[in-house]
Structures are given as structure tokens and as C-alpha cells.
Design brief:
The protein has 167 residues and is mainly beta. The protein has helices at residues 30-36, 73-77; strands spanning 3-14, 21-25, 39-42, 48-51, 53-57, 64-67, 83-89, 105-108, 113-122, 127-133, 136-141, 147-151, 156-159.
């Protein structure tokens, strides 16, 4: 499977005199990916460069990050607005919440049409697909028990609905 870049966070402000900065997570998977995956930094996937996390300071919402080679306030300030990308594989669950999925057709494993994916909500317990079919909206939790396949080339998401999910 081919690796690709997925935006997991955005640098928001400088938070220390030694090149530390704060990040706004763009995914619930941010913490796992920022520490365990190859990272890139830039304005877009094409205009990014590989970076290495030097350290992480703080807890909860007050975490500051520092990359190798970023040692001053000015260097950190030049990163504001740039995105942090993680290197992910096609099968990783983080792809289940990619912006590329908006507009995909959603069907059940038996082939019944549910509708089009209009929005992905980031809720406290799990992400949710907002599916629209004519005038009806259906909310589908983004969990492995329900999401069976994502065929991005075909713009198709296949689900196994639980009892009562579509009623």
C-alpha cells in the first residue's frame, strides 16, 4: 500500500522562546500520528518538507511542540499557518474522515442506496457521516463495525447498517 500525506494539524502560534509552538488538531487521530508517523510540514502536501519531532512539552490542551532545526522564536513564528502532515497508508482509519470522501455515494453491503456523504462531524466519542438522500438526513457513526469499505476511485462507501440505524 502506498503512503500518502494527510493533514493532521495546523501550527497556530509560537509558545516558547526556543522554537516551540502550539498546534490545532485537524483530526481526532492527531496525538497518535504526531508521535508515531513520519511528519511533513508545509502550506500543502506538494509544498511540504519532512520534519522530525524533537519534543513535546505540557499536557492536555496546553501542549507545545518543537521540531528539529527550529530553535528560535522567529523560526517558529515563520511556521504559523502551516500544516502538519502525517504519512499514512491507504488502509489506515484516518482515511475514513478525509475531505476527499465528501460527495461519495453510500450504499449497504447488499447494494441499497443510502445517499451522498455531505459532511463529516467530529464528535467527542466518534466521527459521524452526514448522509443526504433527497430530503432525508441520516447520521452514520464512523466505526469499523459499520464502515466496511471505502472505494475512493469509485467514490463509494459501503456500510453494514445496524438495526434501527437507517430508520
Amino acid at each position: 500500500m502506498m503512503d500518502k500525506l494527510f493533514a493532521i494539524g495546523q501550527v497556530t502560534k509560537v509558545a516558547g522562546q526556543y522554537g516551540e509552538f502550539r498546534v490545532r488538531p485537524l483530526s481526532r487521530y492527531f496525538q497518535a500520528y504526531v508521535e508515531d508517523k513520519a511528519l511533513h510540514l508545509g502550506a500543502s502536501e506538494l509544498l511540504s518538507r519532512e520534519v522530525k519531532l524533537r519534543n513535546k512539552i505540557g499536557v492536555g490542551k496546553h501542549i507545545r511542540y518543537r521540531f528539529e532545526g527550529v530553535d528560535t522564536w522567529d523560526e517558529a513564528e515563520s511556521l504559523i499557518g502551516q500544516y502538519i502532515f502525517a504519512s499514512v497508508k491507504d488502509g489506515d482509519q484516518i482515511n475514513w474522515i478525509a475531505k476527499d470522501l465528501i460527495g461519495c455515494t453510500v450504499k449497504t453491503v447488499s447494494g441499497d442506496l443510502i445517499g451522498k456523504l455531505m459532511e463529516i462531524l467530529w464528535l467527542p466519542t466518534n466521527d459521524v457521516y452526514v448522509i443526504r438522500n433527497r430530503e432525508e438526513e441520516v447520521l452514520i457513526p464512523v466505526v469499523p463495525e459499520i464502515i466496511k469499505a471505502i472505494l475512493l476511485d469509485e467514490k463509494l462507501i459501503i456500510i453494514t447498517p445496524m438495526d434501527g440505524l437507517l430508520n
